[in-house]
TrEMBL record:
Superkingdom field: Eukaryota
Enzyme Commission (EC) number: 3.1.1.31
Pathway in which the depicted protein is active: Carbohydrate degradation; pentose phosphate pathway; D-ribulose 5-phosphate from D-glucose 6-phosphate (oxidative stage): step 2/3
InterPro entries: 6-phosphogluconolactonase_DevB, 6PGL, Glc/Gal-6P_isomerase, NagB/RpiA_transferase-like
Name listed for the protein in its UniProt record: 6-phosphogluconolactonase
UniProt entry keywords in alphabetical sequence: Hydrolase
Residue intervals of the Glucosamine/galactosamine-6-phosphate isomerase domain: 14-232
SUPFAM superfamilies found in the cross-reference section: NagB/RpiA/CoA transferase-like
BP GO terms, sorted: carbohydrate metabolic process; pentose-phosphate shunt
Free-text function comment from the UniProt entry: Hydrolysis of 6-phosphogluconolactone to 6-phosphogluconate.
Coiled-coil parts of chain: none
């Protein structure tokens, strides 16, 4: 039986130093994956994490032709909608680096959310084939103020999904209601899961996720790779309430 990964905390003074160190970490890992098995299969998220990555990654050295970029979750909206996570990366990252459009795996907003989830499974399998759970090299995750991650919300039935690797959600408590998300078994099969959380406003939730003993556990607390690593990149204000730093 694999031992669940214990979180490795990386705490920096400011959100700016978090962003710099996070981006260096991602690039180092990308380059090592490319050297070892030829590609870097990574899932990204929206929010402040997207801002950090779009600001920091373009100036660093990597073979972008070997990247395969997926979305840990995506809102079921048009590509030009302000809520689209794809739009954020298209404008903030793909416009600055030679990341080919066909190596960025976006969800299809023009079909039902259920069909979009099914199509996304096919896209994941085109890069990570087989019948086993897909194993991403890295999943870059955000944590919401309610402790959600991906589009896996506290108390939602999707937290118990074990059959599908990608699932639709039609009743997200946070708008927009329709989304597509990786499921927990896939998240916990990654080689490396990474959270980035900054600001005093996140401090209480960071403490609850990392040190709390809530039942049922908050979604972000349930990210514990079974055969991989778990990193939390925090600034001092977000880490301020942790008892063991």
């Amino acid at each position: 039986l694999f031992k669940m990964a214990a979180p490795i905390l990386k705490i920096f003074d400011t959100d700016k130093t978090v962003a710099q160190n996070l981006c260096s970490f991602v690039i180092d890992r990308a380059n090592s994956c490319i050297n070892s098995h030829g590609i870097f299969a990574v899932g990204v998220s929206g929010g402040s994490l997207a801002k950090f990555l779009c600001q920091g990654l373009p100036s660093l050295e990597t073979d972008w032709s070997k990247w395969r970029l997926f979305f840990c979750d995506e809102r079921h909206v048009a590509f030009d909608d302000p809520d689209s996570t794809y739009k954020v990366y298209k404008e903030g990252l793909m416009s600055k680096v030679p990341l080919a459009e066909n190596h960025v795996f976006k969800t299809n907003p023009n079909v039902s959310v259920e069909d979009a989830a099914k199509e996304y499974i096919t896209k994941v399998r085109s890069v990570l084939p087989g019948d086993e759970l897909p194993r991403f090299d890295m999943l870059l995750l955000g944590m919401g103020p309610d402790g959600h991650t991906c589009s896996l919300f506290p108390g939602h039935p999707l937290l118990k999904e074990t059959e599908q690797i990608v699932a639709p959600i039609c009743d997200s408590p946070k708008p927009p209601p329709q989304r597509i998300t990786l499921t927990l078994p896939v998240v916990n099969n990654t080689r490396c899961a990474v959270f980035a959380s900054c600001g005093a406003g996140k401090a209480e939730m960071v403490k609850r996720v990392l040190e709390g003993s809530e039942e049922p556990p908050l979604p972000a607390s349930q990210v514990r790779p079974s055969n991989g690593e778990l990193y939390w990149f925090l600034d001092q204000p977000a880490a301020s309430l942790l008892s063991k730093k």
